[in-house]
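Schema walk-through. Below, the input block comes first and the output block second. Nothing else is stored per chain. Lengths vary across the set, and this one has 68 residues.
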Amino acid sequence: MKRIDLRSDTVTLPTPEMRRAMFEAEVGDDVYGEDPTVNRLEEESAARLGKEAALFVRPGPRGIRWRC
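--- output ---
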Protein backbone atom coordinates (compact mmCIF):
# COMPACT_ATOMS: atom_id res chain seq x y z
CA MET A 1 0.00 0.00 0.00
CA LYS A 2 1.34 3.45 -0.93
CA ARG A 3 1.87 5.71 2.06
CA ILE A 4 0.64 9.30 1.87
CA ASP A 5 2.19 11.89 4.17
CA LEU A 6 -0.42 14.47 5.18
CA ARG A 7 1.41 16.10 8.08
CA SER A 8 1.25 19.66 6.78
CA ASP A 9 1.68 21.96 3.83
CA THR A 10 5.40 22.04 4.60
CA VAL A 11 5.64 18.39 3.58
CA THR A 12 3.08 18.22 0.79
CA LEU A 13 3.29 20.57 -2.18
CA PRO A 14 0.41 22.00 -4.22
CA THR A 15 -0.06 20.83 -7.78
CA PRO A 16 -0.11 23.37 -10.62
CA GLU A 17 -3.92 23.12 -10.64
CA MET A 18 -4.04 23.89 -6.92
CA ARG A 19 -1.73 26.89 -7.37
CA ARG A 20 -3.92 28.19 -10.20
CA ALA A 21 -7.05 27.82 -8.05
CA MET A 22 -5.38 29.74 -5.20
CA PHE A 23 -4.23 32.47 -7.58
CA GLU A 24 -7.69 32.87 -9.14
CA ALA A 25 -9.67 32.61 -5.90
CA GLU A 26 -11.84 35.50 -4.79
CA VAL A 27 -10.66 36.69 -1.40
CA GLY A 28 -11.90 39.02 1.29
CA ASP A 29 -11.93 39.54 5.03
CA ASP A 30 -14.21 36.94 6.60
CA VAL A 31 -14.36 38.88 9.89
CA TYR A 32 -16.15 41.72 8.09
CA GLY A 33 -18.26 39.36 5.95
CA GLU A 34 -16.28 40.17 2.80
CA ASP A 35 -14.97 36.68 1.95
CA PRO A 36 -17.23 35.25 -0.78
CA THR A 37 -16.07 31.66 -0.16
CA VAL A 38 -16.86 31.78 3.57
CA ASN A 39 -20.17 33.51 2.84
CA ARG A 40 -21.16 30.76 0.38
CA LEU A 41 -20.07 28.06 2.86
CA GLU A 42 -22.21 29.58 5.63
CA GLU A 43 -25.22 30.05 3.32
CA GLU A 44 -25.04 26.51 1.95
CA SER A 45 -24.52 25.01 5.42
CA ALA A 46 -27.55 26.86 6.80
CA ALA A 47 -29.69 25.76 3.84
CA ARG A 48 -28.66 22.11 4.13
CA LEU A 49 -29.36 22.09 7.86
CA GLY A 50 -32.63 23.97 7.52
CA LYS A 51 -31.38 26.85 9.65
CA GLU A 52 -31.73 30.61 9.27
CA ALA A 53 -27.96 31.15 9.34
CA ALA A 54 -24.64 29.40 9.94
CA LEU A 55 -21.31 30.55 11.32
CA PHE A 56 -17.92 29.28 10.15
CA VAL A 57 -15.59 28.93 13.13
CA ARG A 58 -11.98 28.01 12.47
CA PRO A 59 -10.43 25.18 14.47
CA GLY A 60 -8.01 26.13 17.19
CA PRO A 61 -8.10 28.13 20.42
CA ARG A 62 -10.79 30.56 19.27
CA GLY A 63 -13.00 27.78 17.95
CA ILE A 64 -12.72 25.89 21.23
CA ARG A 65 -14.14 28.90 23.10
CA TRP A 66 -17.42 28.59 21.16
CA ARG A 67 -18.08 25.25 22.87
CA CYS A 68 -18.16 26.82 26.33
